[in-house]
Design a protein that fits this description.
Elements: E1 2-11, E2 14-19, E3 30-31, E4 34-36, H1 43-55, E5 58-71, E6 76-88, E7 98-102, H2 117-127
Parallel strand pairs: 1-6
Antiparallel strand pairs: 1-2, 1-4, 2-3, 2-7, 5-6
């Protein structure tokens, strides 16, 4: 199993998604920025390195948001998504073909990598309160 890390980076009510290059596996699908964990590297170190390589930004890595295991035809990944924020830099497209900041309501407008589907569902649920009643009304 391949260990993969990714960043859930929020700016106000929007989070960052990146579009994979056309020539890569799962080309032109949208994903969270990140990549493979290298030997002798913690997940947090890998995420900081990947974001520097792919977007030329330095991250503050926070708590784990969630982890999923997904089997693609060519690879099985354990994807760990961390809450993160940009410490330094402005994202540049060094690896990806596009970058967007979207609200949870906009998720259906984009085609994501299959490993991200469960994560996107959780983001949508977390940002849409189940109980919309006024808490002061019994």
């Amino acid at each position: 199993m391949t260990e993969v890390v990714a960043a859930l980076i929020w700016s106000e009510n929007k989070f960052m998604i990146c579009r994979r290059p056309a020539d890569k596996a799962r080309g032109l699908l949208w994903e969270f920025v990140g990549g493979k964990v290298e030997p002798n590297e913690t997940k947090e170190q890998a995420l900081i390195r990947e974001c520097r390589e792919e977007l030329d930004i330095i991250l503050n890595v926070g708590e784990e948001f969630m982890a999923v295991i997904h089997e693609y035809p060519d690879i099985t990944v354990r994807l760990t998504l961390f809450n993160a924020s940009i410490k330094e830099g402005v994202p540049k497209l060094l690896e990806h073909s596009d970058l967007k900041w979207i609200t949870p309501d906009e998720i259906p407008q984009y085609e994501f990598c299959p490993a991200d589907e469960e994560i996107l569902k959780r983001i949508t649920e977390a940002c849409t309160p189940d109980d919309k009643r006024d808490p002061d009304i019994p």
